[in-house]
Hints:
Layout: H1 10-13, H2 16-26, E1 32-33, H3 36-39, E2 56-58, H4 63-76, E3 79-83, E4 99-103, E5 110-114, E6 119-122, H5 128-135, E7 140-141, H6 154-160, H7 167-170, E8 177-183, E9 189-193, H8 204-208, E10 217-224, E11 226-227, E12 231-239, H9 242-254, E13 261-266, H10 267-277, E14 287-295, H11 297-313, E15 318-321, H12 325-336, H13 338-342, E16 348-351, E17 354-355, H14 361-375, E18 379-383, E19 389-390, E20 392-396, H15 403-420, H16 445-458, H17 476-479
Parallel strand pairs: 2-4, 3-4
Antiparallel strand pairs: 1-2, 5-6, 6-10, 7-11, 8-9, 8-10, 12-14, 12-15, 13-14, 13-18, 16-20, 17-19, 18-20
Helix pairs in contact: 9-11, 9-14, 10-12, 14-15
GO molecular function: FAD binding; oxidoreductase activity
Protein name: FAD-binding protein
Keywords: FAD, Flavoprotein, Oxidoreductase
Amino acid sequence: MSVKMPEPDQAVLSRRAAIVKALRTIVPGEGVIAIEREMKPFESDGLTAYRQLPMVVVLPETTSQVAAVLRYCYEEGIKVVPRGAGTSLSGGALPLADGVLLGMGKFNKIREIDLDNRVAVVEPGVTNLAVSNAVAHAGFYYAPDPSSQIACTIGGNIAENSGGVHCLKYGMTTNNVLGCEMVLITGEVIRVGGKHLDSAGYDLLGLITGSEGLLGVVTEVTVRLLKKPETARALLVGFPSSEAAGDCVSKVIAAGIIPGGMEMMDRPAIQAAEEFVHAGYPLDVEALLIVELDGPAQEVDHLIERVDKIARDCGAVSCKGSVSEEERLLFWAGRKAAFPAVGRISPDYYCMDGTIPRAKLPQVLAAMKDMSTKYGLRVANVFHAGDGNLHPLILYDANVPGELEKAEHFGSDILKLCVEVGGVLTGEHGVGVEKRDLMPAMFNDTDLDQQLRVKCAFDAKGLLNPGKVFPQLHRCAELGRMHISGGQLPFPDIPRF
């Protein structure tokens, strides 16, 4: 691997047989996988460029089993990597050679649907799309819809604070989760939030959402359900340049219009998606916007007219609106299939994830063209234009020596540019190992130490998902060290214990 992970603890590895035996008493039957070929499916997540076999895989079925596994690992000093469906694109679920991979796939039940309170209580292994399907008969749905929603799970959505094409109007996972049950590394089970809209005290739920498995293991989630809009229509708007499309995005938002979704694709992505899905995308344009307006029918018709005018004032060369629900879904099917579609035109691709201020879209897209020339690698752009969340797909061939490294450097330059223009390193894919060593581009040592203190409050031994997010590992005690000058402690008159 080209990323450096913590050195395996040889003392732990020497006890592997005893560890596997102990775990089998906690999770009997087929709940422990320790044979190398059977652990192969767990060696990476969606970021397949990096692979590592775990020491052992454990597949619990109950909260009490999760608590017992974590308590045992805490007492024995064994690292734990929680894993959902493995769709993470940042290496967040990359195993450790001396660690337990805790797979939550058997937590796949919907425990309660409460339409009166507009919530559902689900286990973390329930797929994102399954929640919407379970309540569709009553006219409800779960708003976050990442492109992998047919496979990705609610627990992983919480770990990475996933979004999707409709997050512009309806928010990310953090805006749609009301409560959770979580097991700490000590085996303690805590509950945060619930069916109520807000909780007193610190916003611990906001802290847990997006914590990438570093704070605990979620075993139950209460999600918000929304009523389906009366009407929803999508526009396909073609532009002669990506810069013109980016300008249109800014002007639509500046006009006070908040679409249900606003996505952008450039020529390589358009052509790949159209060949794959046949969604009716125009092939003679350099950039395509998919703009969805929803709400009462009369309002939607009015907003479509306004967006059409703004787009044409920005130089749009085509504008086509969906005339049926089937056509609207087809427009989105092309976008949601863009990642696998691009996989048909390149042996490998490296999917990036950074977020920028919308007004910087034209500048950043132009800079990415220059970077593409510099590195000699093609890039296909597919992203959530409405909130400035970029997903450049860097095309490369892992069988060509040096191409993966070039793709990594290309991606690093894109993310550094995102920060330079006022953006952030990630919008929804998380930091994981992919962006870990870029964190100093956005945060100074004081910032990172403060974040580590939060980690230490939950996991003082640093056993949960180590090697992710933070570029340098510190023992929690090291964060509290005081600077000594001239042999004197600061404020020597203060009693110390």
